[in-house]
Amino acid sequence: MSGPHSPDELAPEARFALRAAAAGLPIDDAATVMRLDGATARKHLRTAVRALGGSAPPPSEGDAGLLAAAAPLFPAARAAPGRAPSTPCPAPDVATALAAGRLDGPLMLAEMEHTADCPACLARLVAERAQGIPPEAARAAAAPRTIWPAVLVVAVVIAVAAWLALR
Ligand SMILES: [Zn+2]
Fold it and tell me: Which protein residues have their CB within 5 A of the ion that is ligand 1?
């Protein structure tokens, strides 16, 4: 599968932009997931098209021209990735936070790259965005998961203090 003209060879943002478009994700949704403005997300898709031998139209031709140029690459983009994800599938709350565009920094980059190379996670992300992300669920999913250990530590400290006071 891997060769000079395989989607596997693309940089992560271009890989995600192409595979997400091939899976039916609107470009602006891909931009939200990657925390990019729409023009930059389109630039990544254009880069993918050019790298794989297509001729991407200038931005002035709009999304219809860009998607028409990308469409011949969609079968290759939908084929099973030649590269296995280097990370395990994210926990459901992390996947939802990614889909909601609420991850950023290295975590977003890692999960975005995983999703580019994992058909199951990509299908889930596309479905979640198509359904719409409930704001409450997205916010809860984005909350740090280190809160519960901290709550447990505080509870144990209070319990020990109470036990000492009652001795
Ligand atoms: Zn996965």
Answer: 89, 118, 121
